[in-house]
Sequence to fold (180 residues):
Amino acid sequence: MDADERSEQLERLFRRTFGRVMAYCLRRTEETAAHDVVAEVYTVAWRRRRQLPSDDEEAVLWLLGIARRVLANQARGQRRWARLLLRVAERADPPHVEHHQHDTDDDLAAALAQSSDADRELLRLAYWEDLSRQDIATVLGISVGAVDTRLHRARQRLRERLATPSHHADPTQESNHAER
Fold:
């Protein structure tokens, strides 16, 4: 089967299986996320169209297997994000002890949005990707000591933003500090 035939087969399969794949995803996640998952499923299927089984039922199972892996990746990403929020919140001393979790999440998201790109990347590597200091140093191409210093300073700046949520710092002004 040549590339054009595989592409046509995938298009036909898409038309026949979209509802089934969407239903599979909707049973496992919320509607907005399900649409994203289905889009990713067919993107992966397109990239791997040479591996597309010729039997229609096997092809459907192949697509559902892709959907299962995409959903698992999505769930891992959500767990990483939750861990990031918890870790950063634990390290920052919020100004009010009786903050609601939703307010803390909003404050943290706003504080991260105000952070420089370098600070956000460093915090993501440390808390979302859960990389070790050595791994972060490798990714960024710096020493472990520099990671320690930059991470300490990034957390300190984040704590300051969380302590004064009404403070709207210009992240471009901090780019020089984030590199130190």
Remarks:
- The longest helix spans residues 56-91.
- Residues 121 and 164 are 22 Å apart (CA to CA).
- Confidence is low (pLDDT under 50) at residues 94-102, 167-180.
